[in-house]
Amino acid sequence: MGMYGAFLLSQWSRAMIQENEIVMLIIGLGVFIFVLGNRPQLKRIPHADWFLPAFYLLLAGWILTVVENILWGEVLNYLEHICYAAASLLLAVWCWKVFRGKKEAI
Amino acid sequence: MHPVAVFDTITFLGSLTALVLIATGWKRALRRDAKLLLGGFFALLMLYGLCLFMEWAGITTALDTMEDFIGALLPMFFAFVVYAFLQEISGRDLRISEDRLRRILDSVQTGVVVIDPEAHTIADVNPVAAEMIGSSREEIVNKVCHKFICPAEQGACPITDLGQNVDKSERVLLTANGTAMPILKTVVPVWLGGREHLLESFLDITELKQAEDALRASEEEYRSLVESTEDSVYLVDSDCKYLFMNEKHRSRFGLPQEEVVGSPYSRFHSEEETKAFVARVKEVMEIGKSLWHEYRSQRDGRYFLRTLSPVKGADGRAVAVTVVSKDITERKSLEAQLQHVQRMEAIGTLAGGIAHNFNNLLMGIGGHLSLMSLDADDAEAIRDRLKKMEQLVESGTQLTSHLLGYAREGRYEVKTISLNQLVAEATDTFGMTKKEITIHLELADDLLGIQADYGQIEQVLWNLFVNASDAMPGGGDLFVKTMSVTHDDMQGKLYVPKHGSYVLLMVTDTGEGMDEKTIGRAFDPFFTTKGIGQGTGLGLSSAYGIVKAHGGYIDVESKLGSGTTFKVYLPASEKSVQEVARSAPEVVKGTGTVLLVDDEELVLEVGKELLEVMGYRVLAAKDGKEAVEIYRENQDDLDIVVLDMVMPGVGGGETFDRLKEINTNVRVLLASGFSVDGEASQILERGCNGFIQKPFNMKELADKIGEIMSMP
């Protein structure tokens, strides 16, 4: 194990990772696998180009909220909240397009 | 306030906006369950954003527990949303599929009925099926299927055979007005609405059935037509195998249809017949047109007129050949009898014309003899008369050869001859026999030769001259002219001459002429203006036939009281003219002993003198028996036997065979008034050394004997 590995291990041992974050991440990754498995069908959702990236951003946020406890806590925390905000905006745009735009049912 | 709180505010507001949009936007964008799940997700996200904002804005940390709880719920809810979307998508696919199926069912021209096999009811029906049944869709759907679909065949209801396909079976559909409609039905099980149904499709085959019935009736008509005919009718494929044979033809073989169909032609015919038939079938299939021919069966010797016609496939190419074979044995027999009768009649009438010609010849010979008796002291004049008499005899010989030709036993000889020479000789002879007619000759100097049989063209001349003579019973002028012309000079005729050069012979008399009606029939066989027994009516017709056979044309121009002109056009030849010798030939003399055998004493006497003049020693025998005896006694001295073929008692053939028994190397020259065909050729095949046609002159006899004597 190199120096970097030793550093990560030392950080991990000192980290204050919350259980709920781990649960959120595990469920999120499970959903991610489910989404990947049904990607062709999900691509048929109207304006899926807005909807699916929103999920990927949420997933990124869930990953970052765990990782920030290990290293670069401040930076990754920012990134986590940015991901949530961006996902929220993308979903708002998607809802606008679907519910207010051209009438295109799933 | 921590800057992160700003992003949490955006998260909160974005989620809130999405929630508002779901609540207020187009209601049909999503199904209600999916919409509720999505709304729940946005509500959780919004609360999550709010909790984060509270924490990072430093307002309170009391919401941390809720934040953790919502954080765990968020991905789960998203999974529910995704699942709802997938359900929505698959539901939409199903709706599209069902809609497409509905459209297909509505658009196909086949009746389609969906049957619920458990309830025995009609679950659905397409417009075509409804129309065929004669009721509306509403009246049919949910009704018991047996009421409409297969009322007459409940025992064979496909529902009882659930799960088994019924493929294109002919059934009956009971229509609303009670009539039974013939249908072609196909039944397949289908999975609809989570249960197995039966999809029945059926086609109205009423017209098809009617067409089938009409076709069957038509086939029956044709079959009875073919079967009832007295002609043999059969069909063969390209390999000459029988595909069909009618009763008449089958009766020749005594076999049923099943046994002959598929049999090759060669099964019932000889190899030679099969070979010829295969070639004709091949030809018909290649050219795609009918051919006919007469054919004599080796099976029973009967004659048939056989017509082979191609049977063409969809691509227009022949796939089989129909043969119609008509028995013409009786007709052939009648034809042969008729031809024989006609031939006898023609020979009878021709005899008159020949007698006429012979009379002319005899008249010429008689005239010369009379003149010779007056010029008895003038040797030169006598020799001249003798030459002319010899020419007349030669003409008589040719006349008999024409008779043989008419009997199809003689042989014609076509060579390049000069029409001028022929005209000069014929007019010279004719002039001597008809002193009351003045002949005016105008012969072209540069006249081209013609490819012709000398004797036949001479016959044409004689026929024209005799015709002119008959037209001028009291004498007159006969103008004979020859000239070279081309097809351009033959315009305005009823015929279109072939391109090229021609030799024209014009024979004009100053006789009584002919009216239009007579001109129209001038060349008709047996047509004559003379009284019964005075003319054969064959002169001009035979002239016409001879000219046509030589590729020429013959015209007649005449007016009553103004004479008649015959124009004969014969194709000119570029080949050099072969002179026809008429003068007394030089006789090659020989040595040796000849046995002359002939039952005619006159011929025996003259022949003996001729041979002796030629330098031979001659032993004579008046029949075959005597000839054999003389030969047996003198075989060492005898060099050649001149043997007459037709003799009473022991004939020429038998005599030849006996001589051969005595000496296998005996040299025999066969002489006969008949042609070389027939018995003469058989004797020649048995080893006879040569043949000479009677009457012969001294040179011909000398040449033949010399030829045989020189054989090794």
Please explain how this structure is put together:
The complex is a heterodimer of chains A (106) and B (712). In chain A, 77% of the residues lie in helices and 0% in strands. Chain A has helices at residues 3-14, 19-37, 39-42, 48-67, 73-99. With 106 residues, chain A is mainly alpha-helical. Chain A contains five helices and no strands. In chain B, strands 11, 12, 13, 14, 15, 16 and 17 form a seven-stranded mixed sheet that branches. In chain B, strands 2-1-5-4-3 form a five-stranded antiparallel sheet. In chain B, strands 7-6-10-9-8 form a five-stranded antiparallel sheet, sandwiched between helices. In chain B, helix 2 packs antiparallel against helix 3 (64-107) and helix 13 runs antiparallel to helix 15. Helices cover 46% and strands 22% of the residues of chain B. Chain B has 20 helices and 22 strands. In chain B, 30% of the residues are buried. In chain B, strand 20 (640-644), helix 18 (652-662) and strand 21 (668-672) form a beta-alpha-beta unit. Chains A and B meet through helix 2, helix 4 and helix 5 of A and helix 1, helix 2 and helix 3 of B.
Would you report the number of β strands of chain A? Answer: 0
| Proportion in helices of chain B | 40-55%
Helix tally of chain B equals: 20
Mean pLDDT of chain A: 83
Structure summary:
The complex is a heterodimer of chains A (106) and B (712). Chain A is an all-alpha fold and 106 residues long.
Task: Record keyword descriptors for this entry.
heterodimer; A: 106 residues; mainly alpha; 5 helices; B: 712 residues; seven-stranded mixed sheet; five-stranded antiparallel sheet; 20 helices; 22 strands
